[in-house]
Amino acid sequence: MQLPFNNDCTSAQLANPTITLFGGINVDVTKVPLRHVKQTLPPTLTGFPGEAEIRYYVKATVNRPNLFKENARSIVPFNFSPIEPPRPQPTDAQVFARRRHQFVSPHSTGKLQQRSKVKSLWSKEKVPSEVPRPEAPAVAIDVRLPEPAILTCARELPLKLVISSMNGVKDSLTLQSLQIELVCITNVRAQSITRTEQSSIVIISQSNIGAFIRFREGSSETELDNSLWRGYILPNTVPPSFETCNLSRSYELVTRIGVKYEEMGYPVC
After folding, report:
1. Alpha carbon of 39 to those of 5, 9, 85, 87, 250: distances in Å?
2. What's the confidence (pLDDT) of residue 10?
3. What residue segments make up the domains of the chain, in order of their start?
4. pLDDT of the residue at 33
5. What is the distance between the alpha carbons of residues 141 and 97, in angstroms, rounded to a whole number?
6. What is the pLDDT of residues 9-63, one digit of tens each?
7. Half-sphere exposure of 224 toward its Cβ, with a 13 Å CA cutoff?
8. Using omega within 30 degrees of 0 as the cis cutoff, is the peptide bond preceding 148 cis?
9. Among 250, 253, 254, 247, residue whose Cα is nearest residue 239
10. What is the distance, to the nearest Å, from the Cα of residue 44 to the centroid of all Cα atoms in its chain?
11. Angle at Cα 133 formed by Cα 127 and Cα 138, nearest 5°?
């Protein structure tokens, strides 16, 4: 048995039959979209019964010449995964997403100082001097993947998490939580109507880690130890991304990181 490498859609002329009525009136029975995507065969896809599914099966029929005997027929389904195209040579290029955060003190001293000034106008009390507070840190967190960003089933994520100090404050920072999930985005198209379905697969979810974030001397950034997510692999049941005329699947990697500043009761970002 041989399977074709690329898909092969029916031509639009054959899929748009036209019926000619008496008097030369033409009536179009059906119209299929002219948008055609020629790529490798999509993988087996389930999970959307009655809406969008991709199935493969082997069908064998034995024709019987006898008019009173029906043809013998057997259907055997199987799961299909397309052949992956050649990957580019690995390079040092990376893709990344960055999120910045500025810690803000939960205690505001503006109102307290204003009340003290008003009270000093009617009494001889001295205005108390404002207690100096340490500067709050400003951090930037990078999530980095190799370029192009390719994830492989049954393998660990080639992920790098880098934390940078934007204002030089690098003490008392603690990693509190880490969650990595894979978001599956399925686009279903019928004529001019498009519907998007989303689901997620949690790869790792840890809380109350309490690991101190340490910076090297003279450096404003540090890379988190990958032992936090080492050993967590992508499930082998995840189908690869694909695109067809009316169905496509893509993925997004969502990372949530909780960082706490221990000094003076700053909240977790």
Report:
1. 8, 11, 11, 16, 15
2. 59
3. 12-78, 94-98+136-265
4. 53
5. 8
6. 755 445 555 565 555 666 565 555 556 788 888 999 988 877 888 999 999 999 8
7. 30
8. yes
9. 250
10. 20
11. 145
CA dist 262 and 268 (Å) reads 9
Provide the 10 A C-beta neighbour count for residue 180: 22
User: Across the chain, where does the E strand assignment appear?
Assistant: 18-20, 26-28, 56-62, 72-78, 94-102, 138-146, 160-165, 173-190, 193-206, 211-212, 221-223, 242-243, 247-261
Residue 237 CB partners (closer than 8 Å, separation 6+): 153
Burial of 247 (0-12, 13-18, 19+ CB in 10 A): buried
Counts of helices then strands in the chain (DSSP H, E): 2, 13
Q: Which two tokens stand for residue 264?
A: 């003076």
Strand, helix or coil at 80? coil
Residue with tokens 């169905």, as numbered in its chain: 247
Question: Residues near 152 by Cβ (< 8 Å), separated by ≥ 6?
Answer: 234
Please classify residue 161 by burial: count the beta carbons closer than 10 Å to its beta carbon, then call 0-12 exposed, 13-18 middle and 19+ buried: buried
Residue ranges for the chain with pLDDT beneath 50:
12-13, 108-122, 127
Q: What is the pLDDT of residue 67?
A: 76
**CB distance 119 to 125 below 8 Å:** yes
C-alpha–C-alpha distance, residues 78 and 76, integer Å? 7
| Cα–Cα distance, 183 to 254 (Å, whole number) | 7
With H, G, I as helix, E, B as strand and everything else as coil, classify residue 190: strand
The per-residue pLDDT for 128 is: 52
Vertex 37: Cα angle to 35 and 41 (nearest 5):
145
